[in-house]
Amino acid sequence: MTGRPVEPPAPDPKMVRAARVHLTGRYAKGVQVLLWETYERPMPDVDAIEAVIKAAEDGTAIGPDLAAALVLAQAVRLDADRREFRLLNAARDAGLEAEAIATVLDLPGAHAAREHIDHLVRRASRPVAAVSEGPPLRSGSTGPDEDRRSRRRGQRAQHAAHNGQARGGEGQGRDGAASAAETTREGSSKEEVPRGAVDDRRP
User: Which long-range contacts (CB under 8 A, 24 or more apart) does 8-11 make?
Assistant: First the structure.
């Protein structure tokens, strides 16, 4: 035993997303409901946790609510660690040495400060469930961005087919339809670029 407090590992992003879905469905109110239904943006993690705490105090929280809130608490802690890591990097870039950091953080010495920084480096490298990235949180939904892209591709296809028919003849109409299909495929390949991994520099 080292005497250090036990810290749970960083939560699995899939578990974090599932917790957000569950708690948003249970506790979202007002504009949070609108954001969820329109953009699939869940309620903020801290708001969800506070909602569960209040429900627990009122005796209305259920077991899955409490479990989901505990998962989100770990996500919030990871977010704070990642932000502190960025801040410490900025402090060191500005010339703040480990001894000074130890003094500010009330650590025993420079060695302890370096250990703390190493810990944050490991935490900052963990994958996170960013709200603005990844697949739609609700299964079976394409989301508003994909809906807009689909509408634009459909409009381009209709326009191309109409132009082909306007130039005259059934053959040209078929050419226009073929051109429309090609336009649709090109639009899909250009617009549906998979999103990259989470940027570790962001909190």
Answer: 8/74, 10/74, 10/78, 10/123, 10/126, 10/127, 10/128, 11/71, 11/74, 11/75, 11/78, 11/129
